[in-house]
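Justification of resources, computational component.

The compute hours requested in this renewal are based largely on the per-chain cost of generating structure records like the one below. Each record pairs the submitted sequence with a full structure-token output. That output is archived, and it is also reused by downstream analysis tasks.
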Amino acid sequence: MVFPSPNTALQVATAGEALMDMIQEADGRLRPCNGGAVYNLTRALGLQGVGTLYLNPLSKDRFGRGMAEAIHQAGVRLAQETPVHEPTSLAVVGIDEQGKASYSFYREGVADRQVNAVQMTAQCAEHASLSVVATGCLALVADDQDKYLPWLQAQRAAGRLVVVDANLRPAIVPDMALYQASVMAALGQAHIVKVSDDDLLTLGFTASDPLQGARDLLAQTPAEWLALTLGPKGAVLLHRDGHGWHGAEPVPVKVADTVGAGDCFLAGMLVALLQRPAMQHASKAVDVRLDDADVQHILGHAIASASLCVMETGCVPPSLGQVQDRVASASPVFRAL
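The structure output for this chain reads:
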């Protein structure tokens, strides 16, 4: 496989957790896989050729060294190349009969949490080519709000496109109301929000139709676009003016597990967004205007990226060529909303 060059002009900066997924096998053994939602997103972007800067440090332990090697192989640049002495975060991952993953986390005193807003803001300021920043999942817990929220505010003020993936993990928090408030504060800085149907319920948007819940959430943020993932039912890309598209695979895919599916979806979405002429020609990323053809291209690429991921065990992000081949051979079915 040919990996993208680490000298590719940086377009996206990512910040958030990097951890080892300890996936429970049928016989009870734990199989370690590189993981963490933002780490998965970062690798997936790099493997699809996007110049990506990862802001969180990695550990000098064995797991951290392996994660650093994998991220370099994906063509991603580390903002902090020197590893830290804190250990790598762990997540124990259980897989149910439908391949859906559940998580338990071990996150105290770990490497990827050794960040602060001032440092991350300065690291982004060093790269004038950055047009997009992305975060989500464990970066949105209330305990780390002082690290990530000021950074998001600074990136929005700097004119970069802010993308936040809610990707909630309720099992990790003792105070759900505080967690919900912290997530909503981060979404309040986003130009693009990504949520799943499960995320909507955890945030308290309990309309029987997830699409209505997504509209209700979008109305409570300044975001222009919201991506809603619906598992095997596909996904929706919704504009704040109410219009949007639903896309789904023409034939259900065989699911090995769902680990990293949402992360690969978001990566595919950002890759396709950066490909569009509207994004390339806009004076500022936040000024992008997308037409229906843009939306279908973006949504189709995102769905194909996620489908390729769920066909594999653990998070195995696809290459750009694999996604393009998937779109060509099994183009999603779209309908306007």
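The chain has one domain: 12-336. The CA atoms of residues 4 and 319 lie 10 Å apart.
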